[in-house]
Amino acid sequence: MAGQVQLDEGVLDYVRSVSLRDDEILRDLVNETAFMPSLNAMVTMPEEGQLLALLVGLTGASRVLEVGTFTGYSTLCMARALPPGGQIVTCDISARWTKIARRYWERAQVADRIELRLGDGAESMAALLAEHGPETFDLVFVDADKTGYARYYEEALTHLRPGGLVVLDNTLYFGRVADPEAHDADTEAIRALNAALHVDSRVELSLLPMADGITLARKNKAQ
């Protein structure tokens, strides 16, 4: 049985050359974020944005919830994949970075599919639950503060319909989760979540070793 391919820059460049289908708007957003040296690691990788769009289509999602917007790359990718009448609600604490996101959403003509909620992510999720009730979303994407992931995950399961999908970004956390010397709060939080997910019978599970680790957790359908 073949082992895991080592994904050096040459292999990654090849993968992108034969599979990535981004466009000028997405490239411009990536390039604008690249001029923020301390923050450019926060932008969604183009191949991950394309995967998110594919997952929206595969799940037939018409209502998507996102926790963590930043400059709106993943939001834009998912919004484009929505069917007519679909909506994505995206939550973030930063008016500064989401101002950039709004500009690109308008340029891509998907702003009417996106509802931005500014404020604490958990509080925004609680407000949505109070407004719409449980099980009203088809897909939830989490890419926010790592110490909040466990709470966001539990909230996501409440918001998801049976058969809905939670997508969690950064679940390898720069490889630090496998480093026994790494004990910072973010790494410990992701480690603990990964361990909890492994034994969570409420979901089907797969951790994809791409980008910075992407976990897919599909909520079991009602028996």
Automatic annotation (TrEMBL):
Keywords: Methyltransferase, S-adenosyl-L-methionine, Transferase. It holds the Pfam family Methyltransf_3. Transmembrane segments: none annotated. This is Methyltransferase domain-containing protein. SUPFAM superfamilies: S-adenosyl-L-methionine-dependent methyltransferases (SSF53335). InterPro entries: Cation-dep_OMT, SAM-dependent_MTases_sf, SAM_O-MeTrfase. One of its GO terms (biological process) is methylation. The keyword Cell wall biogenesis/degradation does not apply. One of its GO terms (molecular function) is O-methyltransferase activity. The keyword Transferase applies.
